[in-house]
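ingest -> validate -> predict -> emit
validate: passed (alphabet ok, no gaps, 199 aa)
predict: started
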Amino acid sequence: MPRGKGRGFDTLNRQVYLPCMRQMLWIMLALTVCGCEGAPIGRTASDDVMFGPQTMRLQPTFTQIKDWNGDKIPDGIDAIVELQDQFGDTTRATGRVIFELYGYRYAAPDPRGERIGGPWIGSLQTKDDQVAHWSTAIRGYSFQLAQSLLSRDRTYVLTAEFDLGTRRLFDQVVIQGKDFASKRHGQVTVHAPDQAPTH
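emit:
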């Protein structure tokens, strides 16, 4: 083939195929972006068995009486809920958590005394609920349980029940007050009855 004709044929190929290639690349890029922003893939039944929550824990270090407005008066309890799968790894779940607060009974098989506060119901049913309560730093859910007339001098028992719909998980934690060590070791034997706040 003459050299001139070869150059003309190559030029025609570039004019036809290069725009087509560019268009196909843009289409593939658009499809990739759309695929990345699609609906989340839900857990299968086998995923729930393998990685779903098996145990719940009220985190004892961070579940404490809190002053949220800075006036040095307790406003309630910051409750931290951790869920673990069968491997002991932190996981998430949908459902609702029901909290109740009791006075502490010393030297009793069941340490729960008179109920002082609650029930508080924390919802984890929606994406907004999950975002509002999940703490990446502590790898758990945080709930602010507003309750007046709490004292850092007294010891309390906080209970939590996680309703998963098909089953429930339970836990309780003792929130130790300044009186805990002395009364637990028998140095003080008389404990004033718990008084529920009046409304």
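The CA atoms of residues 33 and 55 lie 38 Å apart.
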